[in-house]
């Protein structure tokens, strides 16, 4: 029958292997993650939790190793603890890479949002230019039609001015003829002998 310490050591080793595999799976999920930033952050949080559990189990194993009665078993377990610590250190580097990757992804998404806003502003500016161009073309067409109306008005005014001069001349001639007729009649009536 195994001693309680041996059972505890075996359980710690099994849990360390289990957490190690879970951390590896989560790191692979982070590498494969192409989803939104929230999914990447959630995976990153899970990795941190598993690392905490892994550290705790390694500390438990180390404590159990120090409590071993036989020096050979103690050294063997301490060597195993050191191996687990080294592996965890390499995984911590992967965790920091995952955090860096998460930060880079967040920055890229921010840049993508900014570029999207710039494109939208450019589209709005283009739409404003199109509207302004249309307004200018409409104003130009209106100006052309007004220009034609103004030229027609100028011709009519010139024609009316000539007509007015002609009318004044005709009125003057008609008045002169009337006066000449009146004078002739008066002369014939008053001075019939002349």
Automatic annotation (TrEMBL):
Membrane disposition: Single-pass type IV membrane protein
Coiled coil (UniProt feature): 44-87
This protein's record includes keyword Transferase: no
GO cellular component, one term: endoplasmic reticulum membrane
Main location: endoplasmic reticulum
Keywords linked to the UniProt accession: Coiled coil, Endoplasmic reticulum, ER-Golgi transport, Membrane, Transmembrane, Transmembrane helix, Transport
Family to which this protein belongs: Belongs to the SEC20 family.
Protein name as annotated: BCL2 interacting protein 1
Encoding gene, per UniProt annotation: BNIP1
């Amino acid at each position: 029958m195994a001693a309680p310490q041996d059972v505890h050591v075996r359980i710690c080793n099994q849990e360390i292997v289990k957490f190690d595999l879970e951390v590896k799976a989560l790191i692979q999920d982070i590498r494969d993650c192409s989803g939104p930033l929230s999914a990447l952050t959630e995976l990153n949080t899970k990795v941190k939790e598993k690392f905490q559990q892994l550290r705790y189990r390694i500390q438990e194993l180390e404590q159990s190793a120090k409590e071993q009665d036989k020096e050979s078993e103690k050294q063997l377990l301490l060597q195993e603890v050191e191996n687990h610590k080294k592996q965890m250190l390499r995984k911590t580097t992967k965790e920091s890479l995952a955090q860096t990757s998460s930060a880079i992804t967040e920055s890229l998404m921010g840049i993508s949002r900014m570029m999207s806003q710039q494109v939208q502003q450019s589209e709005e500016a283009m739409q404003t230019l199109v509207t302004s161009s249309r307004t200018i073309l409409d104003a130009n067409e209106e100006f052309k039609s007004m220009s034609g109306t103004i030229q027609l008005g100028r011709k009519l005014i010139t024609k009316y001015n000539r007509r007015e001069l002609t009318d004044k001349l005709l009125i003057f001639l008609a008045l002169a003829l009337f006066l000449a007729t009146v004078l002739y009649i008066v002369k014939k009536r008053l001075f019939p002998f002349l």
